[in-house]
Specification:
Layout (H helix, E strand, L loop, with lengths): L1 H7 L9 H14 L8 H19 L16 E4 L4 E3 L2 E4 L2 E6 L10 E9 L2 E8 L11 E6 L5 E3 L3 E3 L4 H17 L6 H35 L2 E5 L3 H4 L6 H7 L1 H14 L3 E5 L25 E3 L6 E3 H16 L12 H9 L4 E3 L1
Parallel strand pairs: 7-10, 10-11
Antiparallel strand pairs: 1-5, 2-3, 3-4, 5-6, 7-8, 8-9, 9-14, 12-13
Helix pairs in contact: 2-3, 4-5, 5-8, 5-10
Amino acid sequence: MRTKYFAEHKNERKGLSVFDTMRMLTALKKELTWLNEINSQSLQHSLVKLDMAFRSFFRHNTDYPTFRSKKDNQYFIVPSGFKVKKNRLIIPKFMDGIVYRDESSIPENIKQIFVTRDVERYYASIQYETDEELTRVDVIIGIDMGIISFLTTSDGVQVEPLNALRTGEKKLRREQRRLSRKKKGSENRKKQIVKVQKIHQKIRDARTDFNHKVSTAIAKHYGTAVVEDLSIHGMQGNHHLAKSITDQGWHRFRQMLQYKMDWRNAELIEIGRYEPSSKICSKCGSIRHDLKLSDRIYHCNVCGLSMDRDLNAAINIRNMGLIKVGRRTPEFTPVESATAAELLKGGLRVATL
């Protein structure tokens, strides 16, 4: 309806508002009775999201909104009319309650509920207000992201990569071959699709859990973190490393670290992607132009410094970030044992340099 209206009034640069579509929805419910099976607030919220997409288009921020597949992005939002009773989540049209499985207790002051479907699982993400204050510590850190080590911090903590895709790759390849032999449209093919989706889901869940544990440990123990602005798409142009780079989930980790640092009023500084952090000596500042990717130990020909390549880069990243914001460069600090201990407690492989 909005597309048709926009085409008819294109010269006037006039479109339907969200309130116009809500009035249409009321009339549409009489024609399409199945719309009454869904609570009105969720339907109205979907129209709000549609209006946001059109507004973004008119501001020249995005392309023209297009229809989405029923198979992708299955979710709905419940902005009101919900409550929690024991182990049941009660939302409009489901007044008997939906049994949920979670060890944590759900707070009372819920703002809205975001329900998503992933393969055969349903998740309810609950947004609520809290007056809990998270503490910030005055420790500065530089973070170097990599493949051999997922990350190396400037104070000597090194986290080994999870490589979730590499771990499940053999099983995934076998199930994908079976899928290719199934007849299109058959029930067996549909069942096989679910099997492949579940393997992808397991890989995705493992990577998400890993990124959450690492980002939480960093946000808890550091008040300022400095990272590089990585060109992930450009790095994936190296076909020898593309799969390993994708397997790390750097972009999602960066997002998690950002909002967790914001919760604590901590600072996340980003330096330019073209800064020569790996080639500079963190002690004397000289540059090694002949440094290769295979060189895992950094040897300085000027001052004689010999150090792990990633640790040297992490120290340089920290120093560059502090210079960027006009702050004093601190001395090299010993390893933050609390961070390493928390990561080890989470079952991650950690080394101290």
